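Input record, target 12 of the design panel.
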């Protein structure tokens, strides 16, 4: 490892469900499951009372009810979750400016330079736990370790309300029998590939010859070996110091599976407006449009992209490009999820369009963005979106959401 660091990983326990239980005292101590919308059937998270009965994330509601007949279904309120997450990250910054939000309910904190002020990482962890509980009534698990990889691993070892420390001298012992899938970054596909190589534990991964891993996984091979050894030199990247964003995108699971082309096009237009408004807010435009579709059976999906001759960030331009992709495909099933992303980005210049019609369009778009920024998303929108615009989707918060910057996606 390089310089000795002290990193915390804070994981809010059963975050969506816990927020709902605090907002509604009648739900406290009861098995609840949070879903993305009234018309959808997949559980996004469940309370620990429900988990004890076998209810898991990703289950259909009927599966959850079979495991726990008394299960209470709660439709998620994303505004509560994003508000709470943002306020919690503000608490973290009272202890170090080096805070990196990993997702809506997880953050890393590099407290190396804060130890002289607060005494120890354990003290900081206890202070954070106390403040989060006092302010929001929520419990969190915290891992303390020499780097981000191990801190996240540590926070997962004791839930809920845990505090786990992995000291530098104990890294090898902790990892020796640890299943590889416990490491952040090793998903099911990678796990299967490593298992085929008779690698099941982090200890085995760390001892595997780098050349053997590189033959199988290319340049990722070296990183995998380092992960097995508990090595991670990646910094905690605070807001404002991130690498340039590579894409702006949004996806939505629809309230119901749809096959009507007009309905699909309407949702496509709404997604285009969401992507376009964020791109304009952060003054970027892109040349490549990617369309992603998941079918009603949940498992079947496809994605296609097109690269344009010029950069765009106007919603109707994004929509037309996405629609042109959709028109090249014959849909095999009703659609469950739609996603659009804008990539191949550049920062937008301030030059006004040459033609007067383009200038009018730009000014109209600026006016619409200004009104929506003040009065809420879609206060002003395209006329074709007005009928039933509140039914756009289940609005499940994507993993890419962050409390700051271009990834701070508007939610409903």
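The sequence produced for target 12 reads:
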């Amino acid at each position: 490892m390089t310089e000795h660091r002290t990193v915390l990983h804070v994981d809010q326990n059963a975050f969506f469900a816990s927020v709902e239980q605090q907002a509604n005292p009648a739900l406290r101590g009861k098995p609840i499951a949070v879903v993305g919308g009234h018309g959808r059937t997949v559980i996004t998270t469940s309370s620990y009372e429900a988990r004890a009965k076998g209810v898991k994330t990703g289950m259909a509601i009927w599966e959850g009810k079979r495991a726990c007949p008394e299960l209470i279904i709660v439709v998620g309120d994303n505004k509560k979750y994003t508000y709470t997450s943002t306020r919690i990250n503000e608490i973290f910054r009272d202890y170090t400016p080096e805070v990196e939000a990993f997702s809506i309910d997880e953050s890393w904190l590099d407290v190396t330079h804060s130890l002289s002020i607060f005494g120890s990482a354990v003290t900081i962890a206890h202070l954070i736990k106390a403040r989060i509980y006092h302010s929001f009534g929520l419990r969190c698990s915290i891992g303390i370790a020499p780097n981000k990889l191990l801190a996240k691993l540590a926070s997962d070892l004791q839930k809920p309300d845990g505090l786990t420390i992995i000291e530098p001298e104990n890294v090898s012992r902790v990892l020796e029998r640890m299943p590889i899938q416990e490491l952040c970054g090793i998903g099911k596909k990678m796990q299967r590939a490593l298992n085929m190589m008779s690698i099941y534990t982090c200890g085995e991964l760390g001892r595997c010859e780098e050349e053997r891993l590189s033959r199988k996984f290319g340049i990722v091979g070296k990183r995998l070996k380092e992960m097995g050894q508990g090595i991670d030199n990646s910094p905690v990247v605070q807001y404002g110091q991130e690498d340039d964003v590579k894409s702006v995108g949004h996806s939505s699971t629809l309230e119901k599976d749809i096959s009507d082309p007009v309905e699909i096009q309407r949702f496509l237009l709404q997604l285009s407006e969401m992507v376009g408004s964020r791109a304009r807010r952060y003054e970027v435009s892109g040349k490549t449009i990617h369309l992603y579709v998941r079918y009603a059976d949940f498992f079947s999906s496809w994605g296609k992209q097109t690269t344009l001759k010029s950069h765009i960030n106007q919603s109707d331009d994004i929509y037309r490009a996405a629609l042109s992709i959709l028109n090249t495909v014959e849909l095999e099933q009703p659609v469950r999820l739609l996603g659009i992303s804008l990539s191949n980005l550049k920062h937008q210049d301030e030059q006004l369009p040459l033609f007067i019609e383009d200038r009018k369009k730009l000014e109209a778009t600026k006016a619409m963005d200004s009104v929506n920024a003040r009065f809420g998303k879609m206060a002003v929108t395209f006329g074709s979106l007005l009928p039933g615009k509140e039914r756009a989707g289940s609005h499940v918060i994507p993993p890419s959401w962050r409390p700051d910057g271009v990834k701070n996606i508007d939610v409903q």
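The mean pLDDT is 86.
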